[in-house]
Amino acid sequence: MVTIDVGGISDERMLHLLLKRELRFPDVYGMDWAASWDPITGLVALGASVPSSPTRGRRDGGRPASR
Length: 67
Description:
Layout: H1 12-22, H2 33-43
């Protein structure tokens, strides 16, 4: 499992630079979401899953907004 601290990320470009560095993506990495899938699937065996935690670290804990 890989954990990447994205606390200091303020825009998409910074996120892609961080992913490129931390996941050791190749120099030809296209720095966008479509391009990110190629090196990820090259690093993960077929049939494996790539888990994510989109709510981890959110100030609201990922809870739905109250109405």
